[in-house]
Amino acid sequence: MNMRVEVRVWVLPALFFVLLGLPCSSAQSQEDQPHIQPRNGPTPKPSPQPKQQQPAAGQQPDSQEQPPAAASEPAAQESSSKDSQADFGAAPLSRQPGPVPAGKAPDDGTFLPYDPHRAEKDIEVGNYYLKLKNYRAALDRFNDALLYKPGDAEATYWLAVTQEKLDLLAPAYGNYREYQKLLPSGPRAKETADAIKRISPHLDAKADPGKAAQHDIDVGETYLTMNRFDAARERFEEALRLAPDNALGYFRLAQSLQGLRHLEPARIFYQKYLELDPHGKFAGDAKKAIDNINAIAGK
Asked: Deepest of 35, 107, 271, 279, by most Cβ within 10 A of its Cβ?
């Protein structure tokens, strides 16, 4: 009895599939079949769509492509103190604010602003160096003052004084004349006029050294009449520097040295005069002076 029931249980499903026209194994093999047949070619990779986000305030939607920022431009969100500083170093002088110095600017092209306070300080320090006879340091200070305050009469005058001390006579003469143009009736007008008269003969020496030497001899002779032997010596030495073969210059130099009691150098220069002009106007005086010096020296 039990076997019959079990056969019926297995027979009934088989009969059901026969009536439907399906094989008995289709129920089990259908679950093993893929739902989609594979492609013959390679399967493309999916490209997921990006999520669309709402643009933030002040931003453009992501769908619009932004141009790349230039490499030389800083990022818009970066902030620096340099943003508020103007750079005039590369701009031409004509476009820079403030007065442009009339003096020569440094060789590196650095812009020098108009600064009268610094110029005043430079003049003060320059005069301090001038009193110490540190003429090179004073020269630098007065030049610096004219860079920061072009056309300053006081700086121009003291620059001329310093140049004259350094025997830079041509630029000194030019700056004395410049002071006269700036302040014709200024507080240093008299000193400026005297300096121009003093320098002018020396400037002529470039064209005619003999003329300048004669001027120094004339001035030295004036000092001799006043027994100012050292001042006279300086003038005669300058005359001989300009005209080394001037016989009168040697004779007058010997006289000034004799007045200073420098007997041996005086005797040498008297002899030099006699060598250059043995029959000159002062030949007799030179021989008498040599005899006197020899007597004093025991020769």
From this structure: 271
Domains of the chain: 116-205 (1.25.40.10), 208-297 (1.25.40.10)
Report how far apart the first and last C-alpha atoms of the chain are (Å, whole number).
182
Q: Kindly report whether the global pTM for this prediction surpasses the value 0.85.
A: no
* 110: exposed, middle or buried (Cβ count in 10 Å: 0-12, 13-18, 19+): exposed
Residue 31 tokens read as: 């679950």
For 90, the token pair is 């590369």
What are the per-10-residue average pLDDT scores of the chain (299 residues)?
50 56 48 50 52 50 43 38 36 34 47 87 96 93 94 96 88 93 94 92 71 86 91 92 93 96 95 95 95 86
Rounded alpha-carbon distances, angstroms, from residue 121 to 115, 118, 253, 297? 10, 5, 44, 57
Exposure letters 164-201 (e unless 16+ CB within 10 A, then b):
beeebbeebbebbebbbeeeeeeebeeebeebbeebee
The Cα 288–Cα 299 span in angstroms is: 14
